Structures are given as structure tokens and as C-alpha cells.
Amino acid sequence: MVGEGGNYLTAAVRLIALAIGMYLLFGIAMEFLETSLALFLVLLLYLAYSGYILPEIDRRRGAPGAAETVSSGTCRSDRLSRLKAIVLFLTVTVILFLILHLLIIVMHEYSHSLCAYFLGWKSDPWEIVYGSFIGAHWDENVDYSALFAAGEGPAASVIAFAGPFSNIVLFFATVGLMSATWVKKHRRAYHCTFWTCIITFSMVFEYVFTRSFLQHDDFGNINHGLGISPWPIFIAGTLLGILGLYYIFVYLVPEYHAIVTPHARALQYVTVSAVCFTIFLFYIGLRITSYPAVPEWWCGVVGIAALFIVPFAASPARGWVQKRMEGRTVQELSPSRPELSGS
Question: Which domain holds residue 139?
């Protein structure tokens, strides 16, 4: 009886998590639709591309294991089991993503606010502007115009840089954690650390790549406060960001496959698609709403192009990805859990 009760409780928790995940996915889709019809159409096209077109391309190219998708399987029960694993994995990832995303935004904004408080330019460090659940319209509530009017440009730059600096510190902290053996041996810990790393990297890269030339926002305030051209920050930040992208897709994503979803090719497709969605559409691609502003709009176009190119190049069916996975398999991992590794 106790065992049956535990099974019912587990099933109930999964059902609730599934309902929450589907609601959040629907909410994200509606936010895209309200923001831009073009973005919403891109999202629909990307779902079709990553869920069917890309695996089918890999299958036709003869890539080993590429046929393991929702539609594959020897019988209906196999397909339903695989679909269940994908939906559950996606649900857990979406819920975790939004929780981590909000926590990192709070960290970012409070970094600005606390810095302003310690420099004497804010009376209440906990007073920030709270935005939507997907991270829009948040603000540190710092009066930069008063700083500039008082001739305190350097102080404004320090305050503006405090937010991105906290993200940079978190990125290197998570990279360090993922190199620890004890994290690699616990799939849930690695899963959480990996997505924290992806989110905090995406926030900084998007700021540098798309907003360096703005007259406001973090890097606009840094440029204004220091009286410098935005080009040095844009060029240096973009080059460092490209190195970060290389590290993520060449090292971290294959390692994630090997640790979290070692025997589930379908879930590996979900992972690389979700990472690309986060970086190239959820952050950078949104810049197309700035049309006809340049370079923001063009940066958004680059992000959308990368949204379809990078998943193809970093597909789990690629030979180089599989070799990376083989070289990063961790022995004596904890038993696989269906909510993360699938079946």
C-alpha cells in the first residue's frame, strides 16, 4: 500500500508539473505573438524544423541513431513512450528555465541597485521595477539622468556595469562547477548548473551584441558615462561571445548529452534545440522588433539565421558531437531518472 501510495503521489506530481509546463509554454508562445507576428511565425517554423525536419535530414543523410524521434519506433507503445519522455523532459526544462531566468534577472537588477546604493545614488537598494514572468520590462530603478547631470559619468558606468559583471561572474562560476566530478555524477545538479550557465551567458552576449550602440541600457550608459565609442565594447564583446558560443556548443552541450541524456537521442535533439532557442531567438532574435533600427534589427536577423544553422551544425547525429560525447562520459553516474534522461 505504501508503495502504491508513493507511485500515485509521483504520478500526481508529474501531472501537475506537466500542466504547469504546458501553461508556461503556451504563455511564452503568446508573449511572442503579442510582441511580433513575425517572431511567432519564426517560432512555429523552428518547432517544425527542430522537431521533425532536422532529425529527418539527419536520417536521410544516414547519421547513426538519427531516426530516434517521436515518429520512430517499432510499435505504437514505443512511440508513445518516447513522446512521453520528450514531453516530460521539456516540461522539467521549461519550468527550470523560467525559474532560473527570473532568479538571474533579480540578481542582475539588484547588482545595479546595490551598487547605486553603496555609491550613494539610491536610498533603497531593494526598490526595483518588477516585470513579466518571462523577464520583460524589469529595471534597476536607478536615475542615470541625475548621475549624468551631476557630472558623475564614471559612477554611472560602474553602476551600469554591475549587472553584466554579476552575469559574467556567474558564468565562470557555473563553468567551474560543471568541471567538478561530484556535479557530473548527479544529473539533476548538472542539469541545473548547465541551464544557469546558458541563461547568464545569453543575457551578457545579447547585451553586447545587440545593445552596445544604444544611448540607454547598460552598455549605452557605460559608453555615455566614460565618453567612449561603442565600437571597442561591441567588437571585443562580440569576439568573446563567439568564443563563448564555441565553448558551449563544442564542449558543454556534448558533455550535457553524455551526462544527462546519454542514451536518448530524441532528448539530445530537444536539448540542442532548446539551447539555440534560448540564445538565438529568446534573446537575440527579439531584436527584430526594433526595425528599422540598425544594428539592433540586423543583429536580430543574424540571431534568427543562427537559430536554424547552429542546430544543424551541432546536431547530436554529427560524428564530431558523438566523439565529444564519448570522450566526456562520466563513470559511476547516479541511476538515470526518467524526468531527465528519458527512456
Answer: 2-341
